[in-house]
Amino acid sequence: MEGMREFLETGVISAGRMRAVEENAALLGLSSLRMMESAGRALVDTILTYNPSRVLILCGKGNNGGDGMVAARYLQHLDAVDVVYPDSGQMTPEAAVQASLLGHCPVALHPVRCAADVEPLLRVFDEADLIVDAMLGTGASGAVREPLATLVALANKSPVPVVAVDIPTPGIRAARIVSFHRPKVEGADVVDIGIPLEAEVCTGPGDLALLPARAPGAHKGAGGEVLVVGGGPYQGAPYIAAMGALRAGADIVRIASPAYIPMPDLIYERLEGDVITNDHLETILGLVGRADVVVCGMGLGRASHDVVLAVAEAAEKAVFDADALARPLPAAKETIYTPHAGEFARMTGAEPPVDLVPRARSVKAAATAGTILLKGPVDVVSDGKRVRFNRTGTPAMTTGGTGDLLAGMAGALFCHLPAFEAACIAAYANGRAGMRAAEERGCGMLATDMLDFIPRELFGRGTPG
């Protein structure tokens, strides 16, 4: 991790990204309870700047409420600490632990089920020197329901300051917002809770939480349609990429190629001849128009670059790999490039540095037309603003075809995710699938041995190696 601090992102972080970082941290050994403890203790430092003697903490049933309960425990030396929380629905396990601990402290607990339960607590609101809003935080969605709506109304009527935890509950007035690790809204005060650098700058299982769930009523095609354009001099590469796209969740994968390999799960679009040429453009561009993502370049050879450029101009989203990575560089409206070191040099005119920090800087500087996923012992992903490292994988993945598989996976994920997130998750899951396959096959592993492990890693929430 030395030298990687420069790649930490700054500014407001989304709720989904924060959940990914927290899950990555938990799987590195920093438990949710320990993060909650740090958050609650840091919250207390802010509360004490107001020099209160009586504090009212409004808690929800999630981890935001758990942060407030930790703070209540550290404030038990004050004249009065009152904790109001919903007495309906199940708390998160971490919040339940904190509620249980408060039962052993000189803290007044006020469970409420409905608005009527709040009425006897008017005295508590009147006597408080400070109110803490720990009701919803990053888990807030939609209108605030009872009894929290009444708690919000009473907090707004009170003349005392309201300190909000992470994000103010919708509708509440907050004099101050305390955010943990990164701000969740503009204007928040940020406190450090000890999340390891690796949890944010490296990919991890938490990133998989960004994958959208398939709706129960989803129909054929809801998983996305991917078009693979490749083959000619080399036959197998586009088919490996196409199968990677299927295993990564695409519903329909078409392959436009002069080479035919019978695979019943793929839709083959025949291109006559031995090499893809401009004569095939009418057919290819018709297919580009119906695809969500185009994956192009595998096994193509160097004689088809004019076709690649035409595909790029027509495509909304595209992943370019292998022989497509040549100057002039193709660029769709949204693009992912998946080069190895030699292809990166062909794209940019310079070999990437060996040392990881300058290597990452070079990828970031080169990512002007789209997101670059530079493959290597440690993959580097950048969209020109952000940098992420992927450390999954195994030396057994030097076998041919693993990069084609990665390109296909990125294409499938790109159907539903932004380019940077799709590339990061593809790199992580591809490396994990390779590690799983190598456990059985060792250095005799084939790229196709990885196929069965891809869905397990992407959709089974696999654990890190």
UniProtKB/TrEMBL annotation:
It holds the Pfam family Carb_kinase. AMP binds at G403. (6S)-NADPHX binds at residues 63-67, 137-143, 166, 237, 299, 340, 404. It catalyses: (6S)-NADHX + ADP = AMP + phosphate + NADH + H(+); (6R)-NADPHX = (6S)-NADPHX; (6R)-NADHX = (6S)-NADHX; (6S)-NADPHX + ADP = AMP + phosphate + NADPH + H(+). Homotetramer. GO terms for molecular function: ADP-dependent NAD(P)H-hydrate dehydratase activity; ATP binding; kinase activity; metal ion binding; NAD(P)HX epimerase activity. The gene is nnrE. Its EC number is 4.2.1.136, 5.1.99.6. Catalyzes the epimerization of the S- and R-forms of NAD(P)HX, a damaged form of NAD(P)H that is a result of enzymatic or heat-dependent hydration. This is a prerequisite for the S-specific NAD(P)H-hydrate dehydratase to allow the repair of both epimers of NAD(P)HX. Residues 18-201 form the YjeF N-terminal domain. Its cofactor is Mg(2+); K(+). The keyword rRNA-binding does not apply. Binds 1 potassium ion per subunit. Belongs to the NnrD/CARKD family. This is Bifunctional NAD(P)H-hydrate repair enzyme. Residues 203-461 form the YjeF C-terminal domain. One of its GO terms (biological process) is nicotinamide nucleotide metabolic process. InterPro entries: CARKD, Nnr, Ribokinase-like, YjeF_N_dom, YjeF_N_dom_sf. Keywords: ATP-binding, Isomerase, Kinase, Lyase, Metal-binding, Multifunctional enzyme, NAD, NADP, Nucleotide-binding, Potassium, Transferase. K(+) binds at N64, D133, T169. PROSITE patterns: YJEF_C_3, YJEF_N.
